[in-house]
Amino acid sequence: MxxxxxxxxxxxxxxxxxxxxxxSGIRAEKKSGVLRVxxxxxxxxSAYEPAQIHLAPEYIFLENIYSxxxxxxxxxxxxxxxxxxxYYWKDNELHLVIRDDFKTVTGLLITVKDAEFSLxxxxxxxxxxxxxxxxxxxxxxELKSIEDRCDGIRVExxxxxxxxxxxxxxxxxxxxxxxxxxxxxxxSVDPVTLKIIDFKNTSGPYYVAxxxxxxxxxxxxxxxxxxxxxKMPQIIELVPxxxxxxxxxxEDFQANRVDFIxxxxxxxxxxxxxxxxxxxxxxxxxxxxxxxxxxMFSERGLKELSREDRFAxxxxxxxxxxxxxxxxxxxxxxxxxxxxxxxxxxxxDVIRKIESSFSSNAAAPPQNLKMTMVRLxxxxxxxxxxxxxxxEFEITDAPKNPNFLKYDSxxxxxxxxxxxxxAGFREDIxxxxxxxxxxxxxxxxxxxxxxxxxxxxxxxxxxxxxxLKALHEKALGEAVIIPLLVAPYAALARKxxxxxxxxxxxxxxxxxxxxx
Length: 516
Fold this sequence. Notes:
Layout: H1 2-28, E1 34-39, H2 56-65, E2 67-68, E3 70-72, E4 79-81, E5 84-90, E6 93-98, H3 112-124, H4 133-137, E7 153-156, E8 159-163, H5 166-176, E9 182-183, E10 206-210, E11 217-221, E12 235-240, H6 248-254, E13 260-261, H7 269-277, E14 282-286, E15 291-297, H8 299-304, H9 307-325, E16 332-333, H10 348-356, E17 370-374, H11 379-389, E18 394-398, E19 416-419, H12 429-438, H13 445-457, H14 461-477, E20 481-487, E21 490-494, E22 498-499, E23 513-514
Parallel strand pairs: 1-12, 1-13, 17-18, 17-19
Antiparallel strand pairs: 2-9, 3-4, 5-6, 6-8, 7-8, 10-11, 11-12, 13-21, 14-21, 15-19, 15-20, 16-20, 22-23
Helix pairs in contact: 9-11
């Protein structure tokens, strides 16, 4: 009997040892779970298109399901490999070496042909807002379809080769990091309409696993992706929030309905920062002060209102905004579009000169004007600040910047808009071209194109930055835009999630939200 007990004890000990080893292995291979993301958009996956990005939520969704040829490092903002594992220049030709083992979640190999197709698709689809890729690569050649020839794009073995101008050598690589230039598998696109029809076979760290018209989308990690990690969320649930309810996402976070609030949420940065102080289970992330709240005048506003009128309107609204946001975390009065100490910023004496150029005895500006606010989130707070000084203004919210909307007549267009663009600290050709297209610097479409060509053909960087500063100074001097406030972007994650996002950009690369 004793012998049987000893054998039984040995067997139990052995099984326990095996169990510990097995469980240890399981713990070692444990994947991160579900990340529920408060998302200020309520659209199905089919509503998102890399060739037509106008608002930040669109960019966030697309940067998580698609990858560009190269990427900007979250650490230092430098260009690094993406779908192209490496790259090199040979004279004026950029050689992008495509990964040879990169697959979608179903095992579809992503090749150099997919990369070539994606760029030609972008050229054949009007609407790209981040960069003038066509002029750099195809010159005057117009692509009506992906079969059309562009002399600047060719394929050799596993390399995509882009032949460009001298300007291209400066700007092409950082431009390609924008998600507009995402690699989309050829098999996921309708060959006739060029519309994306398959959101499962994507090139990003995530793919669409479940989709519906209300925007409640489930993303799942692609273990074949070069950014894949066991520490990143394996499942992401996009939980639509109402952009008109600025505290809705914070209420959802407190009620444990979401785990992550993005940098472009309806909640203001100061509210997110204050919330984090009183919730021990929350981890806060803030960028540098790169969000610039501005009053911009539309084509109608520039035509019907004098320079003095525009400046007078702007100064009154600026004073009201500063008073409304005084003492709130992160918010500061702003006197220029680009953040102070950034590469496009102006010296204080230049700003003083601009301000002194306006007459202090100007007549009172018109009262019955139309204004839109472009997805600012806390609509009531912003509208109250305007109504304090201009109670007669007709104010509505808008899904897009006025320059990206079509109007039946000039009378249907608002005179002005308040918006909160990412101005950036470094010379970013994507942001610069977006700002031009959005009308932040005024000018006609033809004038913008001419200026951009001159800017990109200037090889001397100091002279190029002087051009940018001159454009900035002119926009302020002509009261095309009136800076109101500057603030950081803020994000929030529920512990044990840790936020590894960049302080230099407002991006939300959700694979950088990780656990140990």
